[in-house]
Design brief:
The chain has 465 residues and is of the alpha/beta class. The protein has helices at 2-7, 11-15, 18-27, 29-48, 62-76, 103-113, 133-143, 154-166, 187-193, 209-215, 242-252, 279-284, 310-317, 320-324, 329-340, 348-351, 353-359, 362-376, 417-425, 452-463; strands at residues 85-86, 90-92, 147-151, 170-174, 197-201, 220-226, 255-261, 289-293, 304-308, 382-394, 403-412, 431-432, 434-436, 439-443. It has 3 domains: 2-76, no CATH class; 85-94 and 357-463, Aspartate Aminotransferase, domain 1 (Alpha-Beta Complex), CATH 3.90.1150; 103-347, Aspartate Aminotransferase, domain 2, CATH 3.40.640.10. It is built from 20 helices and 14 strands. The longest helix has 20 residues, at 29-48.
Length: 465
């Protein structure tokens, strides 16, 4: 122990090393010296706690100290928030940023971010305008709604709508629809925070229109329907139609609100996907307000879209909660660009990444897997095989729909699969897969062709550690 402590170099000795010249130029004198001192102190601590004498002279060499200092300094200058490659097979991955934006949406953000804009300025009259005007007509055209506004996410849309129409009143909701919407946020909590009182009607698996009717009192304000987009109930189930709820609400002087969660603007069944409710159909059924997300199956930025009857939307425009939760200008620019991709002659399934990933033929996924496997070849110390896989829409969407896929399965020979996954996460462009038994699966459903070569190089780098 004492011998190793004596071998620790002085700060000046480290600064005079040839390796230090480049590091000083790259990171600056103050940052570099501070990091060197930190490395020396950490080594002193390690040596003093090394009761079994496992440390060697290499641990206190100038080269090792400078190498570790350089690694830490580079890591400290790496952006915390950065792109990753999603090879999990989960297309709308909440932890990885949900929907990938279309190139048109990215270009819209860049244009808006670099210039002043007419965010709340009417170019025709020269007077103050509304940020909602930029997307309202598009939303109405695509959904058949009379009016629309946009807030920063779907939970905010629920909160704002209930605050406007049920503050101090009762919200009637089916027990089978009191969902948890992610991050442990539950619908009953959102209802209470809006200033409304929850009235549960029906049972977990069966709720009839009579249950809603029996629950209505003089203090009732809203009939709330929540689409169970993140789970599926099977067996003996029953629920009233939207048309029945709309009729009851109108007859009772209440507001009928439906929270769809995922916003589907086109029929996805033609691509072999289950029939998620299309927003236009829900609007047509008579709901006063329909709430849905911008960054799930719609394929745009984070946003909470509120579409419905003009009288109800106009009341919301004036509510202070809407201002507190309004969408920002960059998300608004991306949303407008994404919505325009749904208009003819555009084909949203080709131009919106989320929809393209959902609709990609299995034969193309197999071709991606074959290409990645060939690029790896004998370059890696691992067993590499192509396997059938199951991918998912994710983001609380299409809960029971498995998506057929292919994955490249990699079983490292010289390290554990956990260590391999960790090395992939530590790359300059992190690669995120999913572990299955003693191998890592890189699912081709959530990657694109241009990422295959990058994945191959990253895998080789990680396995070479």
């Amino acid at each position: 122990m004492t011998a190793l402590l004596r071998q620790l170099p002085q700060v000046q000795s480290l600064l005079e090393h040839d390796q230090a010249v480049t590091l000083l130029k790259t990171f600056g004198h103050e940052a570099f010296v501070n990091e060197v001192r930190l490395q020396l102190q950490q080594r002193r601590d390690r040596i003093q706690s090394d009761e079994r004498g496992e440390l060697t002279s290499e641990f206190v060499s100038r080269e090792a100290i400078l190498s570790d200092a350089a690694t830490n300094l580079r890591f400290s200058r790496t952006d915390n928030f950065r792109p990753v490659i999603n090879a999990t097979g989960i297309i709308i991955h909440t932890n990885l940023g949900r929907a990938k934006l279309a190139p048109a949406a990215i270009e819209a953000i860049q244009r808006t971010a670099g210039h002043y804009s007419n965010l709340e300025f009417d170019l025709e009259s020269g007077k103050r305008g509304s940020r909602f005007d930029h997307v309202e007509d598009l939303i109405c055209r695509l959904t058949g709604a009379e009016a629309a506004i946009v807030v920063n996410n779907c939970a905010a849309a629920v909160m704002a709508s209930l605050s406007a129409f049920a503050f101090g009143k009762e919200v009637l909701a089916s027990r089978g629809e009191l969902v948890e919407i992610g991050g442990s946020f539950r619908m009953p909590d959102v209802i209470r925070q809006s200033g409304a009182q929850l009235v549960e009607v029906g049972s977990t698996n069966k709720t009839r229109i009579a249950d809603y009717a029996d629950g209505i009192t003089e203090n009732s304000g809203v009939l709330l329907k929540s689409h169970t987009s993140n789970f599926k109930m099977v067996g003996f189930t029953a629920a009233p139609s939207r048309e029945e709820l709309a009729e009851l609400a109108a007859k009772s002087g209440l507001t009928f609100i439906e929270d769809l969660g995922s916003g589907v603007l086109i029929d996805l069944s033609r691509y072999g996907l289950p029939d998620e409710p299309v927003v236009a159909d829900v609007v047509k059924s008579g709901a006063d307000l329909v709430l849905f997300s911008g960054d799930k199956l719609l394929g745009g930025p984070q946003a909470g879209i509120i579409a419905g009857k003009k009288s109800h939307v106009d009341k919301l425009r004036k509510h202070p909660v809407v201002r507190a939760m309004r969408i920002d200008k960059l998300s608004l620019a991306a949303l407008e660009a994404t919505l325009r991709l749904y208009l003819p002659p555009n084909n949203p399934v080709e131009s919106i990444p989320v929809l393209a990933a959902l609709a990609t033929p299995v034969s193309e996924l197999n071709a991606r897997a074959q290409k990645l496997s060939a690029l790896l070849g004998d370059r890696v110390s691992a067993n590499v095989t192509i396997v059938s896989s199951t991918a998912y829409a994710g983001g609380g969407s299409l809960p029971q729909q498995d998506l057929e896929s292919y994955a490249v399965q990699i079983a490292p020979l010289a390290m554990s699969v956990e260590a391999f996954a960790s090395e992939l996460r530590g790359l300059e462009r992190p690669i995120i897969g999913r572990i299955s038994k003693d191998a890592l699966l890189l699912d081709m459903r959530s990657v694109i062709d241009s990422e295959i070569e990058m994945i191959a190089n990253g895998v080789c780098e990680a396995l070479a550690k």
